[in-house]
Please model this.
Amino acid sequence: MSSTSVFVRHILPDGTSVTLSPHSSLTYNPQFTDTSRMLSLTGKGKFDVTKDKHRPFTVISNGIATTALGTVFIIDGQNNKETNIHLVEGSIRVAPTAQSLHRFHETVLRAGEQIVINNMTQRLKWKISKKAKSLSRIRILFRSIALLYP
Model:
């Protein structure tokens, strides 16, 4: 599936919704497998993943594997210099593929977090939305209160 100069929305066989940005493409086996749902993205796409704890949903883009069980995330690999992964809901695991030149460690993102991977220098930059920062502060506050009043 690919897009030309317009956004394209597609529903995958498992019910996952994918929106491709202009000049982006997605390839996958429509049958998936009994143990995984593997796709390859060129460009930028937003994924609203149908939950299936027995078959992880993995998108490969620029040698980076982003895996989710059920969540909403955006991968922007349109710029060959960097890959931007933004988590909207849930949590995802980000790791280099075995064939990739990337050498960073697997990492987990939570809702509101964003990671930018420089494809040339292999450096990672973390970004956290204001909403995620607020939620993090609230969690810390509640943990502190729980420690004070067991």
Notes: The two ends are 54 Å apart (CA to CA). The chain has a mean pLDDT of 83.
